[in-house]
Write a structure and sequence with these properties.
With 694 residues, the chain is α+β, with helices and mostly antiparallel strands. The protein folds into four domains: 1-201, Immunoglobulin-like (Sandwich), CATH 2.60.40; 301-429, Neutral Protease Domain 2 (Neutral Protease, domain 2, Orthogonal Bundle); 436-522, Aminopeptidase N, middle-beta domain (Immunoglobulin-like), CATH 2.60.40; 527-673, Chitobiase, domain 2, CATH 3.30.379. The protein has 13 helices and 38 strands. Strands 1, 2, 3, 4, 5, 10, 12 and 13 form an eight-stranded mixed β-sheet that branches. The protein has a seven-stranded mixed β-sheet with strand order 29-28-30-35-34-36-37. Strands 15-16-17-19-18 form a five-stranded mixed β-sheet, with helices on one face. Helix 12 (546-562) links the parallel strand 28 (536-540) and strand 29 (566-570). Helix 5 (310-325) packs across helix 6, helix 6 (329-343) packs across helix 7 and helix 7 (361-382) packs across helix 8 (384-398). The longest helix has 22 residues, at 224-245. InterPro entries: M1_LTA4H, Peptidase_M1_dom, Peptidase_M4/M1_CTD_sf. One of its GO terms (molecular function) is zinc ion binding. It holds the Pfam family Peptidase_M1. Residues 289-427 form the Peptidase M1 membrane alanine aminopeptidase domain.
């Protein structure tokens, strides 16, 4: 359901989240816009606004339809105009559709409206691991957040928009929106946009001019050192992405502190939560992601009806690129594939063309992870130069226009002069991932040359994929690995590779360059496998003290409230662990905790030869289920009852790890990591007597 359909149909029951994600508009060749000239007064204490919107339309018309928040009373301001209520649409936000009838065709129409917008926070979650809070829109003493989801201005279909926004608030309040703010405080967004944001709060503002654009920081409490770090980082990231992709399309970029925990990327600013912006790693992880969205998503707009490509491409050129520059690209890709294995292989998969936005771990593993891997495979196929040229071509050709995967394909085909239709169709239009098994490997010597022959099978359910598998071979008297590629498009494919020196060992896709199902030998146990499990049992310690028993009960009940597939039992009530589900053991005194004897000592936990006393540290460990290697067993120990809330909040953020330890004061992380895996089934030893330096 998109906004155009909303204008065409009557008596619709609309899911607001879907509406927000499905707002493509027709963009004419010269990118005509509807211009909003908004003047408004906001009363945070009462949660109300009073506004006038004078719209300039691209063509003269005698009737204009628009959507507006149902809590706002609207009146016509154009002389002789009438407003007709067409319908009210029930959803998480009630929306009314109006028609303005003008006395004669005109390109200008004005309406006034007033009322309250005060929507509560709602949790967006998937599974018992928790989720994010969001609101459709709110005006309050804590702050103001208004976007298209609020329907706080007349939303008209068919054209992008530009705007002038003059918002008056009490003394001490500041506003932030797209575009630039003039000396009178009016925000002017002259570039075509798909919506208008208005954020307001009691901010301390910091600025820094730059060669690309002005850096800005808005903080709720003064912190010059924090602001300076973000101002500097903004300049660095803007310069990086302008060199890589093309000119930055705005005159400023602002970091804005929100009044609840968010990670939103808007045109020319980002809205981050108060805890998030103070995490030391955010400035080199999430922050470049939000800046890059000003190229992907906030300048080249997403055709959501054909799939959201923006999140995956942004993740690849931000999150992945930063890891790659630090030498950790392969590990990042392995973690991406593990997330897919943990959350999606056990849930309903969907193609990239059906991805709209992040609604939890499953949608994130597909929409971010699979898309990221698709762009990585495209880069591997074309090479760095053509890949960058394709990105620049796509950006140049679609700036301030709606674009989809077909537009991306056309850009890369133009620079590479290759037909990429089959690759795009395969990776964006179907579900699942290939899984590989290596069989019948044989080494044959012919004179001074050696031939390695064998077979690669695709073991996944469903049709085979067409894939180019990188193979790295270590040979005698050769310091570096020899890289080859094997083309596989059938269920089973044979191969022969020739070498001048004796081959010692072969690794198939060791750097995780292919989007695929990881072999079990490549996957350590992790918290993500527990949080992604369809069925989970919590086993509580009956012999613990009353206070600690209650603490573990609260932990289990918290997660059970979020997912009705969770069962809670006591260790005294069962003789063995269930074999058909993942299991959490709570408490080091749990009668089944001996399954973690490799790490539990008397009054302490041992991790990598370091001891952590149970009285001073809280910890979580994982291992494979002893009765079902496809499932995972977890153990949580709390140093005291006050650690419950912190562990419940923090542990889901460590989903890729096998273990983690927190101190007993502020639950600061003291240890985390993944258990080493056994030799991968995709690594083949060709000479047992040879030594293999890592």
């Amino acid at each position: 359901m998109n906004l155009r359909e909303l204008f065409m149909h009557r008596n619709l029951f609309l899911n607001l989240a879907i509406l927000i994600f499905l707002l493509p508009f027709n963009v004419l060749a010269d990118i005509q816009t509807i211009h909003h000239n908004l003047q408004m007064t906001i009363n945070p204490g009462e949660g109300t606004l009073q506004a006038e919107d004078r719209l300039t339309l691209p063509t003269a018309t005698s009737e204009v339809e628009f959507l507006l928040h149902a809590g706002l009373e609207v009146t016509p301001l154009t002389h002789g105009a009438r407003i007709q209520l067409i319908e009210e649409i029930q959803s998480s936000v009630r929306v009314k559709r109006y028609k303005v009838i003008l006395p004669k065709p005109a390109t200008e129409v004005a309406v006034g409206y007033q009322g309250a917008i005060k929507h509560k926070m709602r949790r967006i979650s998937q599974g018992y691991a928790g989720g994010r809070e969001a609101t459709a829109g709110v005006i309050s003493e804590k702050g103001v957040f208004l976007g298209l989801s609020s329907f706080w201005y007349p939303a008209i279909d068919f054209y992008p928009i530009s705007f002038d926004l003059d918002a008056r608030l009490p003394e001490g309040w500041s506003t932030v929106s797209q575009g630039v703010q003039d000396e009178k405080g009016v925000w002017r967004g002259q570039s075509p946009q798909d919506e208008i944001y208005l954020v307001a709060g009691r901010y301390h503002r910091y600025t820094k001019p730059g060669n690309v654009a002005e850096s800005q920081v808005y903080l709720s409490t003064p912190d010059e050192k924090l602001a300076e770090r973000y101002l500097k980082a903004t300049q660095e990231y803007l310069s990086l992405y302008q060199r890589l992709l093309g000119p930055y399309p705005y005159k400023k970029f602002a970091l804005v502190e929100n009044f609840w925990e968010t990670g939103y990327g808007m045109p020319s600013f980002t809205l981050l939560g108060p805890k998030v912006i103070r995490l030391p790693f955010i400035i080199v992880t999430s922050y470049p992601h939000e800046i890059l969205h000003n190229w992907w998503g906030n300048s080249v707009f997403v055709d959501y009806q054909t799939g959201n490509w923006s999140e995956g491409l942004t993740s690849y050129l931000a999150d992945h690129l930063m890891k790659e520059q630090a030498g950790n690209g392969a590990q990042y890709r392995r973690d991406t594939l593990q997330s897919y294995a943990d959350y999606v292989a056990k849930a309903e998969d969907f193609p990239l063309t059906a991805f709209r936005g992040n609604h939890g771990q499953v949608s994130q593993a597909v929409g971010y992870g699979r898309t990221l891997m698709f762009f990585h495979m495209l880069r591997q196929k074309l090479g760095d130069d053509l890949f960058v040229a394709g990105l620049r071509r796509f950006y140049r050709d679609n700036l301030f226009r709606v674009a989809g995967f077909d537009d991306i394909r056309k850009a890369f085909e133009a620079v590479s002069e290759e037909n990429l239709e089959a690759a795009f169709k395969q990776w964006t239009g179907r579900t699942g991932a290939p899984a590989f098994a290596v069989k019948d490997i044989k080494v044959t010597q012919f004179g001074i040359r050696y031939t390695v022959s064998g077979r690669i099978e695709q073991t996944q359910d469903g049709a085979p994929f067409s894939v180019s598998i990188p193979v790295f071979t270590q040979v005698e008297e050769h310091d570096s690995l020899i890289r080859r590629s094997i083309e596989v498009s059938e269920r089973s494919a044979t191969f022969k590779l020739s070498f001048k020196k004796r081959p010692l060992r072969m690794r198939f896709d060791p750097r995780f360059d292919i989007f695929r199902q990881l072999d079990p030998s490549e996957i350590p146990s992790s918290f993500g496998q527990l949080f992604g499990a369809k069925k989970v049992t919590f086993v509580l310690p009956a012999d613990a003290t009353r206070t600690i028993r209650r603490a573990y009960e609260q932990m289990a009940e918290h997660w059970a409230d979020a997912d009705n597939s969770i069962e809670i039992t006591w260790d005294a009530d069962i003789e063995s662990l269930p074999k058909d589900r993942a299991v959490w053991l709570l408490g080091a005194s749990n009668s089944f905790a001996n399954l973690f004897d490799a790490h539990i000592r008397e009054n302490s936990i041992a991790i990598n030869n370091e001891l952590f006393e149970l009285d001073n540290f809280s910890a979580a460990l994982t291992r494979r289920h002893p009765e079902n290697s496809d499932l995972t067993l977890g153990l949580i120990t709390l140093h005291d009852r006050d650690a419950v809330k912190g562990m419940v909040r923090k542990l889901p953020h460590y989903s890729k790890y096998s273990y983690t330890v927190f101190d007993g004061y502020q639950l600061a992380n003291k240890a985390k990591g993944q258990w080493p895996t056994e030799n991968s089934a995709l690594t083949v030893v060709l000479d047992e007597s040879a030594e293999y330096p890592e």
